[in-house]
Amino acid sequence: MFNLFGSKPKGYENINVSEFKSKMGNGAVVLDVRQPEELEDGSIPGYKMISMRSQDFVDQLQGLEKGPAYLVYCRSGMRSAKTCEVLAQMGHEELYNLSGGIMAWNQEAS
Predict the structure, then answer these.
(1) HSE-up of 66 (CA within 13 Å, CB side)?
(2) How many domains, in total, are found in the chain?
(3) In a domain, 28, yes or no
(4) Beta carbons of 95 and 10 less than 8 angstroms apart
(5) Residue, of 4 and 52, whose pLDDT is higher
(6) What is the CATH number of the domain that holds 90?
(7) d(CA 53, CA 83)
(8) Is 105 inside a domain boundary?
(9) Alpha-carbon span 38 to 40, nearest angstrom
(10) H helices within the chain, ranges in order?
(11) Is there a domain that residue 27 lies in?
(12) 84 within 8 A of 10, measured Cβ to Cβ
């Protein structure tokens, strides 16, 4: 694909709730990058929490195994998109950001 504006490809895909659900399982890792207190807003089953605001955030990401798909979410999709960018820079290849975050997840559940 041509890159007309000189920007680097982002290295992940934004997906909606139904796509996110369809990718769960088969070894995919669900990452929640919110703060622990944000769990009051709900969570996605089987998540692993790595708070983006923790001091060792990058170290925790570096410790993640390369190979499985990573399904990343936060409150609205902004922090998780940034996390996907960092993971892509670290060499992870199958990265998915939940567009709209847990707010979209909860809206679809209601």
Answers:
(1) 8
(2) 1
(3) yes
(4) no
(5) 52
(6) 3.40.250.10
(7) 11
(8) yes
(9) 5
(10) 17-23, 57-62, 78-89, 101-109
(11) yes
(12) yes
35-56 core/surface letters (b: 16 or more CB in 10 A; e: else): eeebeeeebbeebebbbbeeee
Token pair in block for residue 86: 């960092």
What pTM was estimated for this model as a whole? 0.90
28: left (phi over 0), alpha (psi -120 to 50) or beta: beta
Q: Print the domain residue range for 96.
A: 13-109
**pLDDT digit string, tens, across residues 26-75:** 899 999 999 999 999 999 999 999 999 999 999 999 999 999 999 999 99
Distance from C-alpha of 91 to C-alpha of 104, rounded to nearest angstrom:
28
Confidence of residue 2 (pLDDT cuts 50, 70, 90): very low
Residue 31: inside a domain, yes or no? yes
What percent of the chain is predicted at pLDDT more than 70? 91
